[in-house]
């Protein structure tokens, strides 16, 4: 289904080897609030999203998150491709090196491996869109933290771009949530709706 352009959405040109920085940034690949989780979350949720416009948005943003994952991977690769054993040891990157050398593998900055338990797909439009809003804010916070820690402008510029996109995604999901609430019916519950709640309780025999 995808036709892709064979270039990064934002250029990555890092000239200084720094496995310590790579160890921090890799969290946005395989960490709990990273781009891999985001892409899988949105591309799974779209199937049961009853509001067509919201389903289309999930497809669009889920696809863009794949592009963002590619940017993060390019950054980690460029930061580690020329590292020596001494570089890895000095940066505390030696444990990662033992398992993966300088290959890309999804994990958090703390070393925890990627897990699908870090995101949800509930099939409830309000629940899923609310989680998506929170996911974008959490990812934005991670980028804020990275920008506080990292001073190299070659690394900061892609991070600033990615942070800005999290804000845009948050805004788009907010708009989708409002449109979905306007179209509430038994196919796209659940929001605070007293009459709808009464109907549901009656259907459960309460």
Automatic annotation (TrEMBL):
GO molecular function: metal ion binding
Alphabetically ordered keywords of this record: Calcium, Manganese, Metal-binding
Binding note for cofactor: Binds 2 manganese ions per subunit.
Gene3D superfamilies: 1.20.1260.10
Known cofactor(s): Mn(2+); Ca(2+)
Organism ancestry: Bacteria, Bacillati, Bacillota, Clostridia, Lachnospirales
Pfam families (UniProt xref): Mn_catalase
Binding residue positions for Mn(2+): 35, 65, 68, 136, 169
Binding site for Ca(2+): 60
Family of the protein in this entry: Belongs to the manganese catalase family.
Protein name in the entry: Manganese catalase family protein
Organism of provenance: Candidatus Lachnoclostridium stercoravium
